[in-house]
Aminotransferase class V-fold PLP-dependent enzyme (Aequorivita vitellina), 478 residues
Amino acid sequence: MKDNDLNFHNSIFELEETALERKALFDKVNSFSEEFLESLPERKAFHYNTHQTTDSDSFFSINNEKNSIENVLDFFKERVLDTGLNPTSGGHLGYIPGGGIFSSAIADYLAAITNRYAGEFYASPGAVRMGDALVNWAGKLMGYTEGFGGNLTSGGSIANLIALHTAKHHKNITGSTITKSVVYCTAQSHHSINKALKIIGLEDCIIRVIALDAQFRISVKALEDQVRVDEQDGFTPFLLIANAGSTDVGAVDPLVSLANIAKTHKMWFHVDGAYGAFFMLTEKGREKLKGIELADSIILDPHKGMFLPYGSGIVLVKNVKHLAAAHSYTANYMRDAYIEGQYSPSNLSPELSKHFRGLRMWLPLKLYGQQVFTDYLNEKLQLTTYLAQKLVEIGYKVICEPELSVVAFRLELKQYSNDEQNKKVLDFIQKDGRIFISSTVLNNKLTLRAAILSFRTHKKDIDLFLELLKEAKLSLEV
Ligand SMILES: Cc1ncc(COP(=O)(O)O)c(C=O)c1O
């Protein structure tokens, strides 16, 4: 090919904006963000009945049209921000909130602008050191000492997947042994555990769902009995899964007892702390989560307990060699990147290229330090106790004493069935929209739950919630 055969289209420079163009774009997005953040106190936590499509939804589709940033932002506001759930609201008490702190968003911007390759130490020693420092910090916080390792993931589900795959690999559960291998969990285990078991080919294991006590924690006696029976029957107990804060009610399993049982029966002991593990930053949390350091693997979600925007989980494995053995691969084209004695994130997870996700957690910690997170989490614990007390005062039944920051409760008026009245309360709250809660089923009964974990949730939000619950109850009593 000759030079003058080359015929490039003019648009090939369009994706490289000039400094002026960048500033114009950035200023508009920045004003939009500021407007959004400033409007949060008036914004709803939930936009009821906004799931239907509208004519303007054709704008979601991609074609060759060019649009102004103003048009795009208008559409984004109307068809994304003003629909469904608003996880940035302090009124969000559904599922497990977190909020999404601003400094983390800024870090994401920097991460994307600089686009460091966080999967390989060779490509970005700095990004990897940053990620390692966070894994190290989180591991020490859990009480791990030496030889542990981990990975920054996109969330708790992938963190669970990595941990359980490591357990499977380390315990050498393969084709011929799968149907005789036993996994122990409870009805309070998060469904991402079952999903992970399915993905890693352990669906056909024997999965024992062990009975719960009145606080929705695993019954140690029922577990011990089941393990004994399974061993007598020639099965191999290999994996024990515990909750360090269940999603439904925040239940924390008796971790020390479970660790002992796991050790006696040579099981891998996995602790799901996606919701609860960051309470290790608080005194009450450390008391509740005693024994977490005995786990072979732990997961935790900074997009919950550290209030980061969605997209941040952590998996920790007590012996990093087990994590590496389960995930390391080599490829000819990657030969330059291998450094003897140095793990890269790609050796410790399914990902190769990955988001530079360390920065979104590292920057807030560097700017504000660790203590402020402790203070916020303590506030959430206090608000939870306050809410549970007030709920009883206004005539609701609290189902179990909250261990961390989730309150499960029901209305129990005589004239209605349980599910009917609690569905009505749920609808009342969701239609109002200033507060959002979600429901679950406990002991076959529809149950309401409030999870207090957004950094923006303060006493005024809980008081508003209580007012709404009073009104909902009153509307049913007439
Ligand atoms: C206890 C628990 N484990 C795992 C998960 C899954 O985490 P993610 O939604 O980050 O994938 C959740 C999510 O709420 C959870 O509460």
Q: What stands out?
A: Residues 96, 155-157, 160, 190, 192, 247, 272, 274-275, 301, 313 surround pyridoxal-5'-phosphate (CB under 6 Å). The chain has a mean pLDDT of 97.
